[in-house]
Amino acid sequence: MTTQDASERGERIAREPLQLVGSKPGFFGGTFSSLSEIWGRRELLGLLTRRELTARYKDSSLGIAWSLFRPLAQLLVYYFAIGVVLGAARTVPDFAIFVFVGLTTWSLFSEIINSTTSSIVDNAGIVRKIQLPREVFPLSSVGSALFSFTVQLSILIVATVVFGVPPITPALALAPLAFVLIVVFATAVGLLLAALNVYYRDIKHIVEVLLILLFWGSPIVYSFTYVHDQIGGTWIESLYLANPITIAVLGMQKALWISGSTATGDLEQYFPENLIALLLIAIAASLVLLWLSQRIFSRLQRNFAQEL
Amino acid sequence: MTPSPVIAEINNVSKRFVIRHDRSLKERLVNRRGSKKHKQDFWALRDVSTTLELGTSLGLVGHNGSGKSTLLKIIGGILQPSGGEVLRRGRLAALLELGAGFHPDLSGRDNVYLNASILGLSRKETDRYFDEIVAFSGIEEFIDTQVKFYSSGMYVRLAFSVAVHVDPDLLLVDEVLAVGDEPFQRKCLEKIADFQKEGRSIVLVSHSAAQVQSLCNRVIVLDHGSLLHDGDTVEGLAVLRAGFEASRQAGAGTSRREQSLESAVSILGVKTTLESENFETGIPDLTIELEVQVNDPKSRWGAGFTLISSGGLTVYEFNTFGMAITMPRTAGTHVVTAVIPGLNLGEGTYSVDVGLGLVDGSPIAAGRDTSSFAVGRDNHGAGVVRFQPRVTARSAER
């Protein structure tokens, strides 16, 4: 019986070709093998994402509900501080919805960046001991960020219905584009940062600071109309609009914040006219960036085990 | 039977580690110019080549820092070699650390699925093996408890149990077998023996020579990253043992010379000889010759002999006090000869530790030395001891 097993095994092994371990594909050639390797471990990806989510809220009695409270608290703070106290709500229609759309989009981006950056270092135990396509760790962080986003988005939709401004217009088609843009762009940057963070642990802290700056660099708590009024038509505006996060936030606002497009008079809001084109270009650029950063990641990941 | 196919091929593998003394970004930016000073090269492996056939159980042995674990990690694809290449086929499982990837907040059940997936098992396969995994670990009652509440033994048992059910063609094991209580350890070793019967390959890193000897049919001895020996287990362990001794003596040599004059009695040398090298037909006699210098004629000294197997087990010990033999007390050099007739020990390397002591039981510092010898293979049997069995057969019919 056992000898039977053994010889069967021998035959099976003899048929398999010998493969180079930790293959060293060229900078361009390895894309496909990397992709198929990650695809082969998609089940693990799902499990890791679930692990991250269950572990985060395990033993807390409110569990998943906590993922709602942080954005709601943020919303309250910005609504009162900027909307009511500083008076932004007087020139921006449905200020609460406006802020929440921006915050939801932003938190998807910042959560992906934050969690992917530390993902490899956090999983050092596995990276050092088991051979895996290491992309699964940043990608599972993206997965858990997507979950939080879904929760926030559903609240947002409910809120728009409650406020009587459900986003059922042709502009809604911009939402998936903006979503794809944020995910692709953030994943590209996150992959790169995850790999660099292994070598330079300062990256994590630099990222925290940069995220604060970037938050104010996009029209999240102030409307784009202000920006346009101040620097409209100058090269600074073009630069401002070259930021993929800004493009995605504007796309989301156009799609989900109906009053922004319908308001007139003092409340009239300005959006860049070629928003769809901007979104598509940014997505294309982000895809190239994603490919590049995956290639750099696969270069850098060779020495992960010894650097951790 | 056809010759076993090659499962892994290691060609001129080298591994260099660069030890950096500046870790943070600031330090690296500041020291970018003169970064030579802050780097140090360390060759963990140099030009190691070998091939591994399916069904081989290979033991990797060597001193601490000889590159065993590095080689294992390179075979496993966790580290990238600096030079050379590794070719491999079939399914691989690496038991480098038990429970790598266990999450303390998840239940045992969730962790089994997660860990199995990390090791490359699909969900369907895990479903199929799940009951078997839990039964093997023996912690059925606690499978839905969070892992952080497990005792360390339970933790390790569950992890091992997952790892051995992955159905690998090549299993890499790094000193993780010494886990759990004794029955579980036996179970692990049985499982490994099953693995061997099923024709899988095992690469085992171990410091326990006894374990290597009982599990492996081939041994690679590494010394400072280069291959010292590749082949027979017993010979390999003898090489390893000789290496240990050389480094021990290099460390102890000079200081002992100086002491030898001050000390009351000191050892000048120990020599062991096995008479009758023909292990097939006879059982040899062991002679231990000990050269001693007596400086202080008043001391009532004696010698103790300890026979130790390569696995560290004390096979036998005896001393001259217990045998009521008086040692010469006149100043000068003397030779003490101890003979063990009929040394019926099994194949392996052994060492003889000799120590001098006074009658009140206090040891003499300068009076320690070791010598080693190897016992060869006998063709009719194997084991810890050696017998000369007589087997007869006759017809049972009248």
Describe the structure.
The complex is a heterodimer of chains A (308) and B (398). By secondary structure, chain A is mainly α. Helices cover 73% and strands 1% of the residues of chain A. Chain A is elongated and about 85 Å long. Chain B has a domain at 261-375: abc- transporter (atp binding component) like domain (Coagulation Factor XIII, Chain A, domain 1, Distorted Sandwich). In chain B, the strands form 4 sheets. In chain B, strands 5-6-7-3-8-9 form a 6-stranded mixed beta sheet, with helices on both faces. At the A-B interface, helix 1, strand 1, helix 3 and helix 6 of A face strand 1, helix 1, helix 2, strand 4 and helix 3 of B. Strand 1 of chain A pairs antiparallel with strand 4 of chain B, so a sheet runs across the interface.
Q: Average pLDDT value of chain B?
A: 79
Mean pLDDT of chain A: 85
Radius of gyration of chain A, whole Å: 23 Å
- Low-confidence runs of chain B (pLDDT<50, min 5 residues)? 252-261
In angstroms, what separates the terminal alpha carbons of chain A?
45 Å
Strand count, sense and barrel status of the largest sheet of chain A are:
none
Fourth CATH level, the homologous superfamily of the domain at 261-375 in chain B = abc- transporter (atp binding component) like domain
Number of helices of chain B: 8
Class from helix and strand fractions of chain B: alpha/beta
The strand line-up of the biggest sheet of chain B is: 5-6-7-3-8-9
Q: How many beta strands in the DSSP annotation of chain B? A: 16
Order of helices and strands of chain B: EHEEHEEHHHEHEHEEHEEEEEEE
CATH uppermost class of the domain at 261-375 in chain B: Mainly Beta
Helix coverage percent of chain A: over 70%
Quickly give the structural class of chain A. Answer: mainly alpha
Strand content of chain A: under 5%
What proportion of the residues of chain B form beta strands (DSSP E)? Answer: 25-35%
The percent range for helix content of chain B is: 25-40%
**Most extensive interface: pair and counts?**
A-B, 43 and 53 residues
At the fold tier of CATH, the topology name of the domain at 261-375 in chain B is Coagulation Factor XIII, Chain A, domain 1
Our count of domains of chain A comes out at 1
